[in-house]
Amino acid sequence: MTDKDTNHIPTRVISTKKFKTVMISVNFKSKLDESRLAARNLLSKMMIKRTKNHPSEVALLEYLAKHYGAHLSSSTSKRGIDHVVQIRMEFVNEKFVLEDVSLFDEMVALLKDILHSPSSYNEETQGYFDQEYRLYKNRLTSLLDNRNQRAYTSLVNTMFKDHPMRLPAHGSLELLEDLTLDDVKEEHHRMMMDDEVSIVVVGDVDASVQSKFDGLFTRHGAVYLSNKSFTLETPEKVTHTTDTMDIEQSKLILGFTVAAKDKTERINLNAMNRILGGSTNSYLFTNVRERMSLCYQIGSNMDAKNGFMYILAGVDHNNVDVAKEAILKEFERIRSGDITDEYLDEIKLMMRVNRQEIEDRPRGLMSIAYTELITGKKSDYEALLKLVTKENIVAVANRVTLDTIHVLTGGAEDAN
């Protein structure tokens, strides 16, 4: 692993012989801002579909195909109080190509082309914008039609109200409504000039490749944002909300606030989540779903860094109250320390195996490397696992507080 600043852009190279491909990611991080979410999401798709040198999606795809099936992708995510746009490319390592080519150089040249795309904002770009706008709107509309997503969105909107934690990384239809090409152009300029930018490379390459990014784009100074998480208040009482949709079975979702001060508490919260509902041998799955047959679907998710956990269950409308009580009863088992040593060892083994699986994928290694790069801290996962104990799990579980219970039902017909 090698770190270097290239034109004021932190660059990390993870040298490994695990993979026959090379993956590069360029990460743009900015403070989570509701007014900029739609532009950042739409721009992330416009950048990877056509460029100045490859002015159509077909032309770009043909170029990638000729370069041994190279692949481009983009994504957006939330990291604490920040919003991240990630542009990724993956291509075969030239060491495994018989031709005398410099694939790395050609892919970096393409990456430069991508980052400066759209290269102009004119009438032709307006047509491209309109096309991607429609696709983006369709994606957001399909999310609203997803029952689990709708229940989750209603929960976070209730729990966090005016708090930025409620903002989805992918934006929303409301934020998209008034978006213009000029907004995208302005956001493109802000990302290139004002975002915290970093580059991560994973593959069988050495540190010398860092110099190849010198001409990617130039900055006059480094930009570093504080790596902070959200601070959520402990609720004084539990909020109950209901929504209706044309569905045959209800969605029950419970939202909790979580207090975690450091890595030790966060990894114990993650272990607690696996015990509760984050695995197929969890309390909720084996008891509420399998033994009691109260749910056709159930699971829990933990965001320990931002202090948020939720449990989502698909249940028959008539079983909502019974399922809710059964879920909370299983959570109380953990709070009271009803965890055997054998079961905890099994959970820790699952966590270790999962970590190994992440490290055996280029994208997984890249995610770990990016987290370490922006936090300035190297994570020793095995050392943290040793701090997972029943006592620590019970302690953090007793600082998890139920905030909101939301039910998405089928309406009056379902109630009857």
TrEMBL record:
GO terms for molecular function: metal ion binding. It comes from the Bacteria. Residues 178-348 form the Peptidase M16 C-terminal domain. This is Predicted Zn-dependent peptidase.
